[in-house]
Amino acid sequence: MTQETTMGAPAAGADAAATTADGGARGRRIVMLDVDGTLVESAPGILASVRHAFEELGYDVPDAAALNRFIGPPLVETFASFGMDAATADEATAAYRRVYANPSFPDPDRPGELIEGRLLGGVYDGVKAMIGELKARGCTVVTATAKPEAMAFPVLDHFGLTPLVDAVYGATLDRSRNRKPQVIAYALDALGYDPAAGDRAVMVGDRDNDVDGARDNGLDCIGCRWGYAEGGELEAHGAVAVAETPADLPDAVDAYFA
């Protein structure tokens, strides 16, 4: 599966309805996966890039707990929450993206070499098997990430995840689509989501913005305990269920769609 066939396009098999035990047609079961903190343990690269942005602009680097706020929500809004005006938040976002997308940090696997911030980290244990099991159970599996698609594809490609999902949906670099509710709405539209035809969909993610974004689109969200949420965050925002590990998610999805 290539970037050209998955970015902003209907998922492979998106028009193929499942069938009931007696051979009748029923709608699709669509699972929309967040990326950072759900598929990819991306904190090392995100936080290194955020630290660089604060330092480049001459700001004190926040403590670890405060930096954790950058994982999930739109970058420019999170920078602004640290007292930056709109222009400065834009500068910080640009500084972040320069090192996130270009070789800037020591490569832990190749001494003396540099690596892009986005390639630091790795796939959570069990995530690839989780995606495979969801698809084996008849689900259409796509991503819905607030990370710009231009940033998401290199990450998913590098870690071998792009071929495993049916489509990749994300934000835009120009911020015309940068909030989670917008990304989810865009994905549903691209998929031709049709509840009247029996389609059902659920968001899966590790932060409050995943739960809130799903609700804004009339969907529920299953939370991921293995990601970056603070204690009680997912429950407080109304996650319909919380999977403790990637291996638990297929059963949680089955229970939701039952």
* Multimer state: single chain
| CATH homologous superfamily caption of the largest domain | HAD superfamily/HAD-like
Number of helices: 11
CATH topology of the largest domain: Rossmann fold
InterPro entries: HAD-like_hydrolase_sf, HAD-like_sf, HAD_sf, PGP-like_dom2
GO molecular function: protein tyrosine kinase activity
Protein name: Haloacid dehalogenase
GO cellular component, one term: cytosol
Give a written overview of the molecule.
It is globular, with a radius of gyration of 18 Å. The protein has helices spanning 3-6, 43-56, 64-67, 75-80, 86-101, 127-136, 149-158, 180-191, 208-216, 233-236, 249-257; strands at residues 18-19, 25-26, 29-33, 40-41, 103-106, 114-116, 122-123, 139-148, 167-171, 200-205, 220-224, 241-243. The protein has two domains: 3-41 and 122-257, 3-Layer(aba) Sandwich (Rossmann fold), CATH 3.40.50.1000; 43-119, Orthogonal Bundle (DNA polymerase, domain 1). A hairpin with a 5-residue loop joins β1 (18-19) and β2. With 258 residues, it is an alpha/beta fold. The two termini are 30 Å apart. The strands form four sheets. Strands 9-8-3-10-11-12 form a six-stranded parallel sheet, with helices on both faces. A two-stranded antiparallel sheet has the order 1-2. Helix content is 38%, strand content 19%. Mean pLDDT is 91; it is low at 1-6 and 9-24. It is built from eleven helices and twelve strands.
